Amino acid sequence: MKAIAYNIKPDEKEWLVLANYKKHDITIIANSLTADTLSFATGKEALLVFNNDELSSNMILGLRALGIKYIATSSSQTDHLDLTAAGLAGMKVANVPLVADQADTKARMEQVVKNLDQWAAGKCVGKACCCQNDCATAKKM
């Protein structure tokens, strides 16, 4: 899966690269996701959100127009994402709910990559699912 990660800290980058182990084609950008950097997502399927970048409905529509179908946040929180707009755009959204210690960067990056793995296999991400779409698998878990 082709993905892009904006606003990533050096320690997150290191653990993301190790967790990914060349499975997914991830472009890593230190800049925040803004209207000026949005175009870097062209041709990607997934967006990895770090450090609580705010994703408004306008940003989500811009991402969808560029081809983004999936949004994975590296936190358990989703209040920085407009989930309604993502649902209306038909996007799938996931977080990292299984990490008890949010300071555990390694575990968070492993969950982000597991979410990408599931989506690449055409499967639901289960308990990590935050999307507003009708995902029967996620509702049962």
From TrEMBL:
Q: What is the lineage of its organism?
A: Bacteria, Pseudomonadati, Bacteroidota, Sphingobacteriia, Sphingobacteriales
Name it: Lactate dehydrogenase
What sequence ranges are listed for the domain D-isomer specific 2-hydroxyacid dehydrogenase catalytic? 18-100
Q: Would the keyword NAD turn up in this protein's UniProt record?
A: yes
| Keywords associated with the record | NAD
A Pfam family (short name) is: 2-Hacid_dh
Which GO-annotated molecular functions does the record name? D-lactate dehydrogenase (NAD+) activity; NAD binding
Coiled-coil positions are: none
